Structures are given as C-alpha cells and as structure tokens.
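Key result, reporting period 2: structure in, sequence out.
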C-alpha cells in the first residue's frame, strides 16, 4: 500500500462527496480510503452519503462524535426555540429519521480509531478528534503544550484527524499530525471540499497533498430548503461562507459554484 485518500466531516453533503470521489479518480485513485467520521448530520442527504461510502472497495472507517450522538440518541442539548443553536440541535432527530435502522447500524459499527501498520516504518493512527477523545480539537493554532498530551500513548509516526473542519499539517514531538479538513462543511473560509492524499515514502516519511474541490454549493442549499431541513438557514450560511455562524462572507457566488472537474492541490504548513 503506497497511497491513501483521507476524507472526513462529510456531514450529509453527498454533492461534495461525489465531487471529491470524482477528483480522486482523476488523480489516479488510491490503494485505500480512510474516512474519519461525522458522516451524516447537518446536510440534506445522509442516506446518499452512506450509500456512496458503501461503494468504496477498500475503506477504513472511524466514528465521529456526531455519529456517536446519533447512535446513542444523546445529543449535546435539546432544541427549545428558533435560535441557531436550536436549529442545529433539531438536525439530529431529523437525521435519525432519515437514516432509519440500517443507517444507524452502519454508524454503530464504526470503530473509534484505526491503527494501521502499513510497513515496518509506516504506522498511522486515524482518529476523529484526538487519540484521547472524539470531541477534542487539533487546530492549526493549538499550542504544542496542549497537543503533546493529546497525541501520546501509542506507537505511530503519522496521526490523521479531523473534527475542527480546519486543515493543517504539523510536526509535534517527532510525529506528523495532519488534520484533513472537511469534505462537506469547511470552516477555513474556503467553501471547496477538502481532503488529503497521503503518499508513503521510504524511511518512514510521508508526502501529504491537500486537495480542494469546487462543487455546486447552491445545489446543496436548494436541497436543504426542499427537504424542509431544520438547519437549512444555519447550514446555508455555513456552506456559503465556509465559516461558523457570525463570521464574514469572503467568497463570491461565482467562486462557490466553481468547476468541480478541476481540483487544486493546496500547500498547508509542514511538507
């Protein structure tokens, strides 16, 4: 195994996922795909996302925190009004109804982590948040003093993580730490879907290629409205701005509806 594709935080956005899989095919594919969780909630097509993922032949899955919330039925609060937090929380029971028993069983079977020993010199730990918790944040600006206790405890030389929707590539205490960002709901101001290609190199080295893929964001917004999704207003804002609610729109409509046939390699941090 020499090349891996790593996807995360799809969040019910099948339009973005299709664009990413098409871009991956144009790049020559991968020996395996690693999927780091948060597959279903907030987007308009959780069933479509799971159906697409089931079609991937060689895949290693990791459960995300929102996948766990859906399975456990234990959400981070209850909707009690019309504010944006209530809209977000209402997305959980909506997604449960859409997924049905089959979809929830799929999520329930996902492991919390994957330790992949791909060669004597290449050992990868794949998680959603951090090795300690699926709710812990590894961000581009997380202080090293906070990161070191998060990542200790197992023998590996590459950590693959997600959860924050912010891609980054860092060296911490002699380990490569790569957050691949989000396919379906980026939060770094770039609305294009984010994923990564991991190429194994001799001597235990890795070459990380971050890919950004344009897709029709407005198609997803129309789906949210057509399906009467409870988070339609909030999710539309997040998708259009690629920022959490309350931040500033920095990308134009034309840029958000770019040509998904032309993905782009983006350099981020440590190479």
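The corresponding designed sequence is given below.
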């Amino acid at each position: 195994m020499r090349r891996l594709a790593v996807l995360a935080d799809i969040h019910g956005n099948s339009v973005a996922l299709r664009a990413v899989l098409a871009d991956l095919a144009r790049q020559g594919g991968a020996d395996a795909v690693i999927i780091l969780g948060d597959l279903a909630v907030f987007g308009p097509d959780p069933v479509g996302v799971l159906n697409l993922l089931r079609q991937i032949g060689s895949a290693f899955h990791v459960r995300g925190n929102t996948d766990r919330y859906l399975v456990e039925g234990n959400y981070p609060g209850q909707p009690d009004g019309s504010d944006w937090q209530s809209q977000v929380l209402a997305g959980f029971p909506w997604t449960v109804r859409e997924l049905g028993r089959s979809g929830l069983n799929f999520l329930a079977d996902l492991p919390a982590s994957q330790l992949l020993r791909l060669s004597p010199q290449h050992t990868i730990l794949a998680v959603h948040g951090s090795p300690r918790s699926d709710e812990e944040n590894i961000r581009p600006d997380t202080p090293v003093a906070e990161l070191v206790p998060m990542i200790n405890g197992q023998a590996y030389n590459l950590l693959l993580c997600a959860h924050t929707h912010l891609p980054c590539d860092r060296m911490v205490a002699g380990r490569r730490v790569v957050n691949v960002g989000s396919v379906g709901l980026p939060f770094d101001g770039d609305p294009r879907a984010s994923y990564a290609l991991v190429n194994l190199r001799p001597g235990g080295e890795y070459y990380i290629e971050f890919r950004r893929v344009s897709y029709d964001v407005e198609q997803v917004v129309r789906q949210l409205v057509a399906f009467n999704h409870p988070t339609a207003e909030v999710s539309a804002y997040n998708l259009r701005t690629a920022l959490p609610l309350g931040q500033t729109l920095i990308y134009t409509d034309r840029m958000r509806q770019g040509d998904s046939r032309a993905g782009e390699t983006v350099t981020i941090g440590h190479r």
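Residues 248-258 have pLDDT under 50 and may be disordered. The radius of gyration is 18 Å. This case is discussed further under Risks and Mitigation.
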